[in-house]
C-alpha cells in the first residue's frame, strides 16, 4: 500500500465515521495499520469508532497507542477525554484528571477558550472527589489566565465567588493550605466587589467572618475583618457578635474582650453574645449572682455556646447551687457533642467541674456519677488535680482503700500540691482521726490559703476533736470565720458559726444572725432555719420568726418543709388561732404522716376549735403511732366523755391507770 493509498484509506475511514459507519471505518484503519503499524491517525480513528461501538477497552487501547506514538498531539488526548466522560465509564476519574491536566498543558500556548473549558471540567471533577486543595490551585490558575487575558473586574469577582462556593464545604476537614486559599479568595472577592457598601459586599463579609471564626489560628485576621466590616456597616451588630463569641470560646477576658462586650450591649442591649459577655465580666469580678442572671438570659438567646454554659456552671458552683451547676455542665457537654469541631479543652473543663460539683452533693450516687465523668477526661491520669477529685469521689462512695491509695500516691508524686494534703485530710476526718486531719488541712492551707473548704474542714476538725478545741476562739471559731470570709455563699460555715455563738459563747443575737444568713444561702438547711426561728422566739422577736416561716411555707411544694409548717402551726396554737394551726399542722403531716407528736398537736388544735370528733381521731392516731403518749390517750378519753361515750371513756381511763397508777387527770376523769 503506497502512501497515496494510505491517505485514501484514512480519508475513507474519516468519511465512514462521519456517516456513523463505524465498522467500515475500523476495516479501513486496520488496512492502514497492516502497512504502517505506527500510523497515529489510524489509531485515533480506531479509538473513535470503537468508542461509538461500545467497545471501551479497545478504544482506550487505541488512544493510548496513539499517545505513545505522539504524546504531544491533541487528537488522542481529546478522544481519551471524550471516552472517559461517557456515563458508562466508572472508576476512571483519576485517569480523566490526568488527561485534563495534559490537555491544559497542550492548550496553554494556543486555544485559551478551550484551556478554560477543560480547566472548568477539571475543577468540577476535583470537587466531586472532595480534593479541595487541587480545586483551589486549579481555579487560581484559571483566574490568573483570565487576568492575563484582560478580564473585567466584575468577571474576576464572580470567579473568586465561585472559588468560595467550591471551597465552602471544605472548612470541616481541610488542610491549612486549602484554608489559606479560601481566605485569600474571600479577600479578593471583597476587594473586587462592584457596589460598596452593598448587599452583595455585606453578605460576603458575613460569610468571610463566619469562615474565619472556624480557624482558631486566624485571630488577628478575624479581628481585622470584624473591625473592617464595622467600619463599612456601623449599624450592623453581626461582626461584634462574632467577635464576642470568639472571645467567649477562647476563654479570654482581656481588656479588648471586655470592651467588645460593652460595645455590643451599647449597640443592642438584647444581644445574646453581649449579655453572655457581661455575665463573664461579672463572674471575673466575683459578682456571682449577677453572673448567673446574665449568663442564663444570654443563653436563652444563644444556647449553642458550650463555653457560656461552662461559665454559668462555674458561677452556680460559686453560690453553691450544685444541682443547677450539674445541669449547666451537662448542657455544655451536649453543645460540645453537636459542635463541628468539639473542643477538648472545654470538654475536659466541663467534665472536671461536673465531677467537683457532684462531690459537693456528697452521696454515693453522685460520687459514682463523678467517677464516670472523670473517666471521660482526656489525659486525666497525668493530672494530679483530677486524681485528687477521683480520690474524693471514692471517699464519698465509701471506697476507703482506693481513696487512700490515690492519697498516698499523690503525696509521693506531688508533695507541694495543696489538693494532695486536702485529700489526706478528708480521709482522716471521715475516720475521726482529728489530729492527723488537722496536720493535713494545715499543710493544704499553707500551700493554698484561699480555699474556704480547707478552713471549713479544719474548723470542723477542731469542733469535733475535743471540748477544748471547740471552745478555743483561735481554733474552730477562727477557721469558720476565715471560711465565711473567703466564701460568703458557704452556708454551712455560717451554720457552725451560729452553733459556736449559741452553744459556746452564749450570744443568742449573733447566733441568730448567723443561722439566718446560713438559711438565706441554703433554703434546704432545716437545721439553720429551725435554729433561727427558735432563737427569734427566745429573743421575743416573733416578727422575724414568722417572716422566716412565712417565706418557707409560701415557696414549699406539698409534702415538703415539715419543720416550717410544724413551727408555725405550734405558734398559731399558742396564740389562740386554732384554724390556722389546723391548716399548718395538716401540711406538716403531709410531709411526715407518722409523726405522733404532730398528730397530738393537731388534736389540740381541733379541740381548741371545738371540732371534738376530729380531735378524738387525731389523739387516737397519735397514741396508735406511739402508745407511750399518755397525754394523747388521756385527751382521747376526755373527748369520749364530752361526746357522751362514757363506757369507752371509762375503759380508756382505766387503761391509763394500769400503766400510770397516779396519773391525776385520769383519776379525775
UniProtKB/TrEMBL annotation:
TPR repeats lie at residues 40-73, 562-595, 596-629. The keyword Cytoplasm does not apply. GO terms for cellular component: Ski complex. It comes from the Eukaryota. GO terms for biological process: RNA catabolic process. SMART domains: TPR (SM00028). The keyword Metal-binding does not apply. InterPro entries: Ski3/TTC37, TPR-like_helical_dom_sf, TPR_rpt. Keywords: Repeat, TPR repeat. This is TTC37 protein. It comes from Climacteris rufus.
Amino acid at each position: 500500500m503506497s502512501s497515496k493509498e494510505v491517505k485514501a484509506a484514512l480519508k475513507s475511514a474519516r468519511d465512514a465515521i462521519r456517516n456513523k459507519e463505524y465498522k467500515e471505518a475500523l476495516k479501513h484503519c486496520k488496512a492502514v495499520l497492516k502497512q504502517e503499524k505506527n500510523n497515529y491517525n489510524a489509531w485515533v480513528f480506531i479509538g473513535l469508532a470503537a468508542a461509538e461501538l461500545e467497545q471501551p477497552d479497545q478504544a482506550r487501547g487505541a488512544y493510548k497507542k496513539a499517545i505513545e506514538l505522539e504524546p504531544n498531539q491533541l487528537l488522542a488526548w481529546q478522544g481519551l477525554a471524550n471516552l472517559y466522560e461517557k456515563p458508562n465509564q466508572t472508576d476512571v476519574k483519576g485517569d480523566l484528571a490526568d488527561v485534563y491536566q495534559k490537555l491544559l498543558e497542550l492548550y496553554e500556548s494556543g486555544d485559551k477558550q478551550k484551556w478554560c473549558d477543560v480547566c472548568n471540567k477539571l475543577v468540577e471533577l476535583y470537587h466531586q472527589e472532595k480534593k479541595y486543595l487541587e480545586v483551589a490551585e486549579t481555579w487560581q490558575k484559571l483566574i490568573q489566565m483570565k487576568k492575563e487575558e484582560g478580564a473585567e473586574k466584575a468577571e474576576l469577582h464572580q470567579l473568586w465567588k465561585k472559588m468560595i462556593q467550591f471551597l465552602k464545604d471544605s472548612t470541616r476537614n481541610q488542610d491549612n493550605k486549602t484554608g489559606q486559599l479560601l481566605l485569600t479568595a474571600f479577600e479578593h472577592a471583597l476587594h473586587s466587589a462592584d457596589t460598596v457598601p452593598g448587599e452583595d459586599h455585606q453578605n460576603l463579609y458575613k460569610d468571610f467572618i463566619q469562615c474565619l471564626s472556624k480557624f482558631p489560628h486566624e485571630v488577628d485576621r478575624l479581628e481585622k475583618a470584624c473591625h473592617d466590616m464595622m467600619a463599612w456597616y456601623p449599624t450592623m451588630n453581626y461582626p461584634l457578635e462574632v467577635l464576642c463569641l470568639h472571645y467567649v470560646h477562647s476563654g479570654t477576658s482581656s481588656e479588648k474582650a471586655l470592651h467588645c462586650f460593652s460595645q455590643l450591649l451599647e449597640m443592642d442591649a438584647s444581644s445574646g453574645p453581649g449579655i453572655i459577655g457581661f455575665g463573664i465580666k461579672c463572674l471575673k469580678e466575683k459578682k456571682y449572682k449577677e453572673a448567673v442572671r446574665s449568663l442564663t438570659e444570654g443563653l436563652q438567646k444563644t444556647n449553642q455556646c458550650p463555653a457560656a454554659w461552662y461559665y454559668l456552671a462555674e458561677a452556680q458552683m460559686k453560690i453553691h447551687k450544685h444541682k443547677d451547676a450539674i445541669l449547666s455542665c451537662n448542657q455544655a457537654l451536649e453543645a460540645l457533642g453537636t459542635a463541628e469541631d468539639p473542643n477538648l479543652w472545654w470538654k475536659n473543663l466541663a467534665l472536671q467541674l461536673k465531677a467537683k460539683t457532684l462531690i459537693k452533693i456528697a452521696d454515693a450516687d453522685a460520687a459514682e456519677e463523678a467517677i464516670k465523668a472523670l473517666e471521660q477526661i482526656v489525659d486525666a491520669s497525668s493530672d494530679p488535680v483530677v486524681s485528687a477529685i477521683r480520690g474524693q469521689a471514692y471517699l464519698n462512695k465509701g471506697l476507703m482503700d482506693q481513696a487512700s491509695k490515690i492519697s498516698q500516691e499523690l503525696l509521693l508524686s506531688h508533695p507541694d500540691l495543696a489538693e494532695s494534703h486536702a485529700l489526706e485530710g478528708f480521709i482522716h476526718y471521715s475516720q475521726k482521726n482529728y489530729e492527723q486531719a488537722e496536720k493535713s488541712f494545715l499543710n493544704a492551707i499553707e500551700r493554698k490559703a484561699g480555699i474556704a473548704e480547707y478552713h471549713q474542714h479544719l474548723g470542723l476538725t477542731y469542733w469535733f476533736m475535743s471540748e477544748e478545741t471547740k471552745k478555743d476562739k483561735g481554733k474552730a471559731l477562727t477557721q469558720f470565720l476565715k471560711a465565711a470570709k473567703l466564701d460568703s455563699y458557704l452556708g454551712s460555715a455560717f451554720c457552725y458559726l451560729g452553733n459556736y455563738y449559741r452553744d459556746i459563747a452564749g450570744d443568742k443575737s449573733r447566733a441568730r444572725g448567723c443561722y439566718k444568713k446560713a438559711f438565706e444561702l441554703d433554703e434546704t438547711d432545716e437545721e439553720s432555719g429551725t435554729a433561727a426561728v427558735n432563737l427569734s422566739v427566745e429573743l421575743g422577736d416573733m416578727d422575724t420568726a414568722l417572716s422566716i416561716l412565712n417565706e418557707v411555707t409560701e415557696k414549699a411544694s406539698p409534702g415538703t418543709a415539715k419543720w416550717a409548717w410544724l413551727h408555725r402551726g405550734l405558734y398559731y396554737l399558742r396564740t389562740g388561732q386554732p384554724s390556722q394551726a389546723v391548716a399548718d399542722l395538716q401540711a406538716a403531716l403531709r410531709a411526715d404522716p407518722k409523726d405522733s407528736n404532730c398528730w397530738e398537736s393537731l388534736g389540740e388544735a381541733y379541740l381548741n376549735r371545738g371540732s371534738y370528733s376530729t380531735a378524738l381521731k387525731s389523739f387516737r392516731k397519735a397514741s396508735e403511732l406511739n402508745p407511750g403518749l399518755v397525754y394523747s390517750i388521756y385527751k382521747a378519753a376526755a373527748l369520749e366523755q364530752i361526746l357522751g361515750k362514757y363506757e369507752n371513756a371509762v375503759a380508756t381511763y382505766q387503761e391509763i391507770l394500769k400503766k400510770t397508777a397516779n396519773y391525776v387527770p385520769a383519776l379525775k376523769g
